[in-house]
């Protein structure tokens, strides 16, 4: 019998004009402490990006998201934070901040299959 896995996830948001607090969902980060699991994916729709009429460079956003991913999965390109253990990295990535790339508050859940749940949430909340 498969064991239930506890996880937390947060939606990654693009907030082009922080002072207006308008955003759209561009990714998902999910982790499970017990399973030593962390996964992050993103998708920035160019048409939605253009509709936000922002002065931010699209390529800069993609590079910042790649850096976010380096930190999440613990790659050396992520710097000192990437060396933290998985729960600390998740907490750092989901900390409240006033920047162009933000996350929602973390949400808990339970599943039998972390990847399948990640893919479902990504499809529902991002795509």
Give the topology string: H per helix, E per strand.
EEEHHHEEH
Give the number of domains.
1
Low-confidence stretches: none
Helix content estimate = 25-40%
The DSSP helix count reads 4
Please outline the major beta sheet. 5 strands, antiparallel
Name the average pLDDT: 93
| Structural class category | alpha+beta
Principal-axes geometry comes out as globular
The value of Rg in angstroms is 15 Å
**Amino-to-carboxy terminus distance:** 33 Å
Strand content: 25-35%
Number of strands: 5
Your description of this structure?
This protein has four helices and five strands, in the order E-E-E-H-H-H-E-E-H. It is of the alpha+beta class and 127 residues long. Strands 1, 2, 3, 4 and 5 form a five-stranded antiparallel beta sheet that branches.
Could you give a quick summary of the protein structure above?
The protein is α+β, with helices and mostly antiparallel strands.
Task: List descriptors.
127 residues; globular
Which helices and strands occur, and which strands form pairs?
Elements (H helix, E strand, L loop, with lengths): L4 E10 L9 E9 L4 E6 L3 H6 L6 H16 L12 H8 L7 E3 L3 E5 L2 H12 L2
Antiparallel strand pairs: 1-2, 1-4, 1-5, 2-3
Helix pairs in contact: 2-3
């Amino acid at each position: 019998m498969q064991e239930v896995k506890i996880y937390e996830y947060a939606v990654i948001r693009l907030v082009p004009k922080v002072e207006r607090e308008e955003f759209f969902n561009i990714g998902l980060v999910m982790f499970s402490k017990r399973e030593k699991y962390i996964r992050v994916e993103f998708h920035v729709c160019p048409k939605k990006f253009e509709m936000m009429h922002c002065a931010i460079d699209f390529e800069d956003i993609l590079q910042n998201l790649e850096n976010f991913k380096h930190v999440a999965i613990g790659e050396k390109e992520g710097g000192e934070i990437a060396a933290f253990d998985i729960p600390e990295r998740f907490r750092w990535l989901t900390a409240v901040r006033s920047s162009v790339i933000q996350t929602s508050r973390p949400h808990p859940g339970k599943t039998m299959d972390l990847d399948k749940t990640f893919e479902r949430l990504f499809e529902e909340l991002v795509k």
